[in-house]
Amino acid sequence: MNYPSAKQYIHLTHKGAHFATHAAQDDADRAVLLLLLKRSNTPRLAEFLRLLKSIKKSSSFEQALSLFSKGYLIAKDHADKLEDVSLEVSLPAVLANLSDRQHCAISDQEGFLLSYSGFELEQAEQAALLAVEISGLQAKRQQNIQDLSGSNLSFISIIDTDGQSQLRFWPMYFNKQAFFLAIKGEPLLQQKSFTRLAWILGQRYL
Question: What is the pTM of this model?
Fold first, then answer.
């Protein structure tokens, strides 16, 4: 593992974005990652350590190394910054990158459609409502799902007769606020567009 240097900037990885947003429970690592999602730019190492110290009395450097070793963070030579634009402008292109068919919708916990890509509006609204209902069931049975799947990161799918996924639902949490992705086709969540989505939502809801 390459440790960060003082001049480098601290970036969240897609693995870190998943861990930060896949549950609402309090967690020391999650608290740090959510702090990064609240920022509009990536901090240098010294500033990041100060952020850690503000929420943790024990060694901030030790926790920083732990976050890097878990793959939640990565150091880069360049900074990144979110543009100050509305969700209506920023979300559609990001959502399109989360599906191999470029079909993705996102709603809040009340079923309100925040944004979508690929779907017709009526389809996106139906997918958003279905995501809320199914994710509600998933939340109630999360422990059973984890026990059966053997994973903390799981989602519910609607499949066809050939076993191919047609629609998948993925929850995201920002403190106690929940959001739900409805993805048509193969999800592409293990990449930087998911991190970008988490960052954009973090700016608004953290």
Answer: 0.90
